[in-house]
Input
Amino acid sequence: MKYSKQFLVEAYTTMTTIRQFEERMIKEFMAGNIPGFVHTYDGQEAVGVGVCMHLSDDDIIGSTHRGHGHCIAKGCDIELMILEIMGKSGGLCKGKGGSMHIADIDKGMLGANAIVGGGPPLCNGAALSIKTLGKPDVAVSFSGDGSSNQGTVMEALNLAGVLDLPHFFVFENNHLAEGTGDSYAVSGEIAERVRAFNIPCDTVDGTDFFAVYEASKKAIKHCRSGKGPYGIEADVIRYDGHFIGDPQAYRGEGEIAYLREHKDCLKIFRKRVIDEGWMKAAELDQLDEKAADAIEKGVQRGMAAPRPSLEELYSDVYCTY
Amino acid sequence: MANLTAVVMPKWGMEMTEGELAEWHVALGDEVAANTDIVDVETAKIVNTVINNDAGIVVRLCAAIGDVVPVGGLLLVLADGAVSEDDIDTFVAANSGEVEVPVTELAPAAPPPEDVTTAGAPATDSGPHPAGSLADGPDDGTVPVSVVARRVAHHNGINLTHVAATGRHGRVSLDDVRRAAASAGLTLAMPEARVFAASPLISDVDLKATPVARRMAAALEVNLQDCRATGRHGRISKADVEVAAARRGKLSANVSVGDSRGVEATAQDSVIRQPLSGARRAIARVVSKAKQEVPHFRVNIDVDLTAAMALRKALNARQNGVNISLNDVLIKACAIALRDNPRVNGRFDGETLEHHSQANIASAVATDNGVFMPVLQHAGGLTLDAISTAMRDLAARAKTGRLSSDEMTLATFSISNLGMFGIDSFDAIINQPALTILAVGAAVERPVVRNGELAVAPVMTMSLSSDHRVVDGADAARFMANLRVLLEESVALSE
Amino acid sequence: MSDSGVSATHHNHPIKTIREAINEALHQEMERDATVIILGEEVAGGAGCQGSDEAYGGVFGLTKGLGPRFGRGRVIDTPITESAIIGAAAGAANTGLRPVAELMFVDFIGVCFDQIFNQAAKFRYMFGGKARTPMVIRATAGAGMRAAAQHSSMLHPVLTHIPGLKVVMPSNAYDAKGLMIQAIRDDDPVCFIEHKLLYETSCPVPDESYTIPFGEAAFPREGSDMTLVAMGAMVPRAIAVADKLAAEGIYCDVIDPRTTSPLDGEAILESVEVSGRLVCVDEANPRCSVAADIAALVAEHAFSALRAPIKCVTAPHTPVPFAPNLEDAYIPSEERIEQAVRDVLGGR
Output
């Protein structure tokens, strides 16, 4: 067997946690239990998990609008995430960040980023720290096909190349920037853009966990060994709207049903491990239930938690005043 | 005797305890200004120069080059006038005691010193004030303090070691000094507020201004740089100069800024901005409230004044010294009609409705301060002569601001007459809390039909505004019909 | 222009320019703390060029000598890529370094403002107090070099407006050194605004390292007749006016806030409570400026103490012009400051 049982259990647990977490957040949002704007990661689980399975708390990631999945994959506490997303006291960011700014510096999660293209320049900084302090760590930025059109991302690629930074650029091409397709909005190929900065970049099927895992392994090894930045472009799909409540009027007829049938990374994972005889369906179902229980517990805790105290409005603007 | 001040070894930094004198920059008998270099001092870390706070004549050097002097120790004595050697000896003795380690807690109350200039804190100006229990204390030179708090404390002879610090970053604030003084029973003397003459500095000849504005500015010594240019094409207008001058208090009292008659009529737009006077503010408030709160409805009626005018003419022909106006006749008619229609005569404050048997009729009187509504009380019992005399008296007193409170406020009915301006008809806003107001237009010759024939007669349009919360349409209509009959027949009016 | 703002107790220290003082501060902090790095365009200079590495040290020479001393690993030449510079500084600050990023001209915040105000300034608040972003953004600013509209702005009001940023604007070499060392040691993002015209002004500056706390105003002149608040390059001008008036027996508190965020409002209010008169001088444009902010602060909290209307002396509401006569008219002059002071003195 190529992968250990423990590895497969961990990978699947994280993926199914993300899927069910996002589906639950949609439900809670619709029920009025979550304020504001929420962007979900369901459908892209294989990428976040496939990359983060290689990382420790000392490695740094920078995320996107769609940050819940990266948070969970990086090991953030899902109950504290739910408190945060619900805007409750005791949340991961004390209820002051919310879904779009969810972060956990202690876990090396430098934040979801509600500015498209905001993260890669920051991850250059994390990579610069790693390089300057002589650490073996790596910085990973997640960007979408939308981000790939931002000047900040082009600047970040160039500077990472110039300074040979240990920065792994992960482009999750879900083919939709909000409600605009990449076939229209991205001129040329994302991977080609990365390569133009003399940064190696592979393309990978982002619905196949194992493909992402193996591609990341190569990329991260490259970064950790001081050879400079690396990139991958992962071909993924997005199930839900840009934000929860997005009617997705821009979708084709039957498009989403097709994606769910043929491009679901969890289904693909299950089929592979069952076909290979690595795990049984019942085992996987059990992991689904365990994840559901944990999420249910978090939601109950989130519903019961109070709002932040009014003093929280004024604190944490500065370290010193 | 002249005031003596000490120059002492300063404390530069937390760790300094003493300093060695390296070089004098002054000699005995020198007259030195404040902030002069006095002496170079060498510490374990640096060479630095001691500066004096007060001007004066050097009357005593208290240490020599090479001496090591503790922080707070006496270096020299300055005097602001002639002084005897004995006085200097006394001063030096009083300032040469043990140098205490600074303590920051509030020191126990001590008797006020004879001369505060001998207290630990060097006075920083010529007007020291005894600070009682707050005066004594160790050197306060290292107490964190805001610049102004230090200045005020020392101006008042307060030693900062006695002041609890609550200011920014833990420093003593001006408020802290105020609190300490208050709790010690001291009144803080603040530096004197001085008045300065403005002196035009920048030439204003290049600025665009109307010739009149420039002439006026020269006369009033206003620099045109200080004016806002609101005139046409960005020119400074006469009004702009007046505003600037008024701000400086340079305009005589009889040309107030708000007096539009002081502004020449020109093609340009002269804007005068002013706060409302108290009386105008009151009017504004009352009118707004009435317009916003009271649901008004209006009924109009035309009255043929042929009979009323004939009555007035006859009465005035008596030449008894009373000149009865058409308004007086109208008041009389209203008084009678109100007696018969009590539902339109009264007051309503939103809670309680009053209907009055007496007609207390307010009439609008225009004055320089706005419109007043003096009240003719108990009008129903008065003859036309008495009404005329009383109205003249009320109007005169309204114009000089000598109406009593009752005469201003007790109206149960009001009349506003704009007939003298040739106005045909208008609506009036109810003079709250009265229930109704009658708006009266001009008597104009109009065609009327009399006994089926067309004739010309003086006709006047009247409009009654009523508070619909408590007055019904029929009430108002009956009153107006009644009033018309009284005026058109006029028989009852001469009573 | 005179040396400004330094009390007489600094007399025996060597005379240094602001350029030298800041350079010395950078040297001493990089020596003291290995996590301090410098990055920006040509901060070491000459990367990828044929000439000597040692020669350059930036267009204004502020970072001269740092490259040879600390190596290109800590004094990092970047491409012309402001977003990536500020982003790298912000990311590095959150992961263990204390970066000093240089914006050659503060006008260039236009191309990297997202990384400053959406990222660096908001991290701590958004992340519930977990983030620490100890970074310094050095930027040259100010008119007077005939550099025209895109290389001459004073943008400290824009930066002061942003919660989470600290904004420092030294007016003399002594303050520049102490404030720079404080800025580097501070755990919050600090914008350090250096006025180009002040670089060659000098005063005594101790050789040893020292800090000046943020939010504590300096009073280079004291007097109870007038409160004259001035910032940056306006401070020497305000001092010159105060000295001229002092010769006539009129004494001004000249207040140099030194940091516009945090602002020592307390010191300003206290001074106005005594003087009853306020003139604010600021080279920035007038609308929503720090001068306007201070005027509002006083109107709101010390209105009853005022004896005359407040006056602000600022640039006009225009970009910085090129022609020398126009630029000279743009910058608040000593004459305009003096006129405003005399107007307010004569108010009542």
Remarks:
- DSSP finds twelve helices and seven strands in chain A.
- Chain A has one domain: 5-313.
- Chain A has a mean pLDDT of 96.
